[in-house]
Automatic annotation (TrEMBL):
Matches recorded under PANTHER family: SLL0781 PROTEIN
Protein known as: DUF4440 domain-containing protein
Coiled coil: none
Length: 137
């Protein structure tokens, strides 16, 4: 049986740990590594895209990090209860034309009993910035 510690129900310490583990995984920009935190049949809404299952997660993230260069993410615990965590985040990246962006958003996560994320709903907004305005490094 696959498990991803810490397991729900979450308390402040374990919810904070789960958020940090997610931040670290996403900053690795390794789609396979990131996908292992999710159930095989995970459901996502990312902006206007709907992603279902680990295979689609890997495809989505592989394409994302080919376009979003020098990606750097910071997540912050917003709220938690039982098997759910809400986070706010911001990340920065540049495109192939060296235009920098900062993306802001919120995510709602739901975990199964084995600590794997079964649902992820993300709302994200982008803002073009100058490289000198970067703050997530």
């Amino acid at each position: 049986m696959e498990q991803k510690l810490p397991l729900p129900p979450f308390n402040f310490e374990t919810a904070t740990q789960k958020v940090q583990l997610a931040e670290d995984a996403w900053n690795s920009q390794d789609p396979e590594r990131v996908s292992l935190a999710y159930t095989k049949d995970t459901e996502w809404r990312n902006r206007s895209e709907f992603i279902n299952g680990r295979e689609e997660v890997v495809k989505f993230l592989s394409a994302k990090w080919k376009k979003e260069l020098n990606y750097r993410l910071k997540k912050e615990l917003w709220a938690f209860t039982d098997n759910r965590i809400a986070v706010r985040f911001e990340y920065e990246y540049c495109d192939v034309n060296s235009q920098w962006f900062r993306a802001y958003g919120n995510e709602n996560w739901e975990f199964d009993e084995n600590g794997l994320m079964q649902k992820r709903f993300a709302s994200i907004n982008d803002l073009a910035i100058q490289e000198s305005e970067r703050r997530v490094k």
